[in-house]
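Sample entry (117 residues):
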Amino acid sequence: MPLHRAQIPIEDNPFAELAAHLPSSVAFIREALRDPEANVLVHCVQGISRSASVVCAFLMAFYGWAPAKAVAFVKAKRWIAEPNFGFVAQLHEYEKTLQQHHHQHHQLVHNLQGRAR
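Predicted structure, serialized as tokens:
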């Protein structure tokens, strides 16, 4: 099985710009998981904040979860996970972006259905 890799050069710092990387990170994970035999490893140096935040973003995008639910789920699976306050704030901003995309998609579908009649 081929190995695919994506690396995000970001510091574990509450003021680091993680949000800019979330759409591409989520897309990378989603694309990898299209193969039912695939496994995805998301990691950082300690597995506490950066990788946990990226997994939370994926859960939010894939399942429509709120940031708090995604963080609680990740923490239940990896007790040491603790996204820093800046990354949690960016997850809330990412949630707004997801909601806007969801609303735009539904608006487009509604408009297309109106034209088809």
